[in-house]
């Protein structure tokens, strides 16, 4: 009998510190896409409030209570992270397990904003893109979900098939930012 072993999207890539940014694969969260049926947005938000303590996010918004969070993921779509979908939601929305479909990388540190600014056409200054905000945008040539999780930290999500490209883009940009900072 064949024994299958689970692998992360980046195959166990070790975290790296490049200059003033730490890059690390984020593993293991349950991910569920939620797309409300027509005309039930308010009911879905109420059901989510009862189940998780937060409703359906507005565009660009991240809602969180404890470890569970819900990230706006596009027009009338959200991604529920680190929580099992409540069975009452199935009457109000299409729900699909996305746990193995995405890879996630965190970029944390004083240079995180500068690194990502080289790759994304989004104003990432804290005043324009505060903690709890998210955007779907290109990162280099990869379509990603970019979320600010701390004043100096971001989570970047891309399709699992793009994991190696995502890692390459972000580490290359981090090396350029670190090299520039090292100039006299």
UniProtKB/TrEMBL annotation:
- Domain of life here? Bacteria
Q: Which InterPro entries match?
A: GCVT_N (IPR006222), TrmE/GcvT-like (IPR027266)
Residue ranges constituting the GCVT N-terminal domain according to the UniProt record? 93-175
Pfam families under this entry?
GCV_T
Q: What is this protein called?
A: Sarcosine oxidase, gamma subunit family
Q: Which organism was this protein described from?
A: Pelagimonas phthalicica
């Amino acid at each position: 009998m064949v024994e299958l072993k689970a692998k992360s999207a980046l195959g166990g890539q070790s975290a790296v510190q490049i200059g003033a940014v730490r890059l690390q694969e984020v593993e293991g969260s349950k991910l569920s896409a939620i797309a409300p049926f027509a005309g039930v947005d308010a009911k879905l938000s109420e059901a989510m409030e009862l189940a998780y303590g937060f409703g359906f996010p507005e565009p660009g918004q991240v809602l969180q209570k404890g470890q569970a969070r819900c990230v706006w993921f596009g027009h009338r779509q959200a991604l529920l992270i680190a929580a099992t979908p409540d069975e009452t939601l199935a009457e109000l929305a299409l729900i699909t397990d996305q746990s193995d479909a995405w890879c996630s990388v965190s970029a944390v540190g004083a240079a995180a904003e500068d690194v990502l600014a080289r790759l994304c056409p989004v104003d990432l200054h804290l005043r324009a893109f505060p903690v709890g905000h998210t955007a779907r945008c290109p990162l280099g040539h990869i379509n990603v979900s970019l979320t600010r999780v701390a004043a100096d930290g971001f989570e970047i999500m891309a399709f699992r098939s793009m994991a190696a490209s995502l890692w390459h883009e972000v580490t290359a940009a981090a090396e350029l930012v670190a090299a520039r900072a090292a100039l006299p």
